[in-house]
Amino acid sequence: MLILLTAGCASTHVENTPLPAGEGNPDRRSIAPASPDRPVVLMTFSGGGSRAATLAESVLREMSQTRYSGIDGPHVLTEDIKLISSVSGGSVTAAWFGLHRGPGHWDGDLDGLRTDFLTQDNMAALELDAVNPITW
Q: Which of 63, 19, 58 minimizes the C-alpha distance to 39?
C-alpha cells in the first residue's frame, strides 16, 4: 500500500537536448495588416465558463456584422483578427473561431457554437459523470 501512495512522488529526468549546430528556432511571425488601410485586430477572451464563452461569441457576432471599406474593397472586421489570447470559457469560443477560419476568411458559423455548446446544459452532464462509477 505504501508503494502505491508514494508512486505519485516519482519523477523522471528529462534532458533538454540542444539544437544541432547551424539550426535555430524558427523566427517569430510578424503580425502585419493585409494592407496599409486595414486594422490589425488582437483579441482577448476572458475566463468564466459558459458566460465568458457567450460574451466572446457575442463580440465576434457583432464584429462579423461590422463592415468597412478599404482600398481593396469592402471588408468584415473579423477578417482582420490576427491573434486571440484566451483562458477557460473564452477558449471554447476562440477554438471555435480557429476551427471555422480559413486563410483570409471566416465562415461566420456562430450558430453552431450556440446550439452545440452555449445553450446546452453542460452542468448536468458533468454531474452525471461525477456520480457514475464507470467514469471515475
A: 63
Contacts of 110 (CB under 8 A, 6+ apart): 57, 60, 61, 64, 96
**Cell numbers standing for residue 131:** 456520480
C-alpha cell at 20: 544541432
Range scoring the smallest mean pLDDT among 35-39, 102-106, 121-125: 102-106
Q: Which amino acid, one-letter code, is at 34?
A: A
The answer to whether position 2 is within a domain reads no
Check: pTM over 0.85? Answer yes or no: no
- Which amino acid, residue 83? L
- Quote the domain boundaries for residue 105: 41-135
Best CA proximity match to 79, nearest among 53, 56, 97: 97
Q: What is the mean pLDDT of residues 112-116?
A: 83
Question: For 32-36, what is the mean pLDDT?
Answer: 78
Give the containing element (helix H, strand E) for 59.
helix 50-64
Angle at 51 between CA 129 and CA 126, to 5 degrees: 0
Count: domains in the chain: 1
